[in-house]
Amino acid sequence: MVTSREASKCLANVLLLEVKTRQIFVDLGYPTKAAQRLKNDHREDELLNSRILFLMTYDTTLDFDDIFQNHELAESINSVKPTGRKEPPTLTDVQALSETLKLLFNLSQYYPQHLPDLAKSAPNILKMLCRISLATPVLQPPVTYLVNALLNLSVVNDDKPLRNSDPNPYFPKPDQFCNIDRFISILDNAIRTYTEEQLEQLATPLVTLLRKVFGFAPSQVRPHMQTALLPSNSERSQPLGQSNTLASRLLRLSNSPVAPSLRESVSSLLFELSDKDATSFVRNVGYGFAAGFLMTHDLPVPASATEGWSTAHGARDLGEKLTNVDGKEINPVTGQIREMEPEASGEEMTEEEKEREAERLFVLFERLKATGVVNVKNPVEQAHQHGRVEEVE
């Protein structure tokens, strides 16, 4: 067996470096032999044969349906045992697990018809993610592969969420929150450690996983996730997003200019946590953070969130339906409690100053209109056409 494993190492290296050799391997009928050897209860066999089969998912005509049906591929993957419970895993343990998880992700992605069988891996993967010692920085193999593998395993036969199975591995008894808390702890650790550019690649799958899990979480788990990930009322002493809590850091990521995929994933998660309701979304995160997501997804913006900016100068309040939290009035744009907002600095403008400012804005609108870059209508002209300008003698 030692000689055979050394040969398998050479073969795996050739298949990695020379893409054209993968189809030769398929044409010779050897993938079935790799699938058979994957059944061996040996970490090095698992490492080598998972890697070989993983490479077969790229640039070959191999039909994995036959291997699923006749060589018990799903059963071999599902039989992978959790590591790190009684003793620290070896390097070979970690490498073998990583290769199997990569194979699992590709198979679940390219062969969704086999998801019901592959989903049986979820309990073991969740146990491993909870038991494994987290390195620093946290998002590195095998943690990243464990998270990725779970992304496609939240759905079973007939697109029914795993919550319809009994028991549900995501919310085990007696501690239904253990897996959720682990996900959130990893995310919190990652956001504190990585730059936004790094999080774009590393953290987006974890945020997506949290969103998917919330979608099928039981009623007693959903409030727990909302409390952990949405801004609390205690943060409203200042504009939302300015504290150092996980919720505030998520809000800042939802506006990140350098992480578009993460920005979209975070905004989608916060919207899901708001029960997919635009009014609740604005109430939870503030219109300043919600506006972009609502507009890009063609979702109706609550009318009360666009009717004014403050009541300081007699303008209509910004959203009477959105401005009360625990009996205290809040600013729907910033999410801050009104009575804790800083007082406006400086004196109110005189009538003469208002006229000069209006004239300056009129000129700016006319210049912008003349460029032809954008089709803009001067608000003074628009008001005059609608009869809202009164002649004064």
Sheet/helix structural class: mainly alpha
Largest sheet: 2 strands, antiparallel
Number of beta-strand segments: 2
Distance between the termini: 104 Å
Overall average pLDDT: 84
Q: Percent helix among the residues? A: 40-55%
| Net shape | elongated
* % residues in beta strands: under 5%
Order of helices and strands: HHHHHHHHHHHHHHHHHHEEHH
User: What is the overall number of helices?
Assistant: 20
Radius of gyration over C-alpha positions, nearest whole angstrom: 28 Å
Unreliable residue stretches:
156-165, 307-321
Biggest sheet, strands in spatial order?
Answer: 1-2
Question: What does this molecule look like?
Answer:
- With 393 residues, the chain is mainly alpha-helical.
- It is 54% helix and 1% strand.
- It has 20 helices and two strands.
- The protein has a two-stranded antiparallel ribbon.
- Strand 1 and strand 2 (328-329) form a beta hairpin.
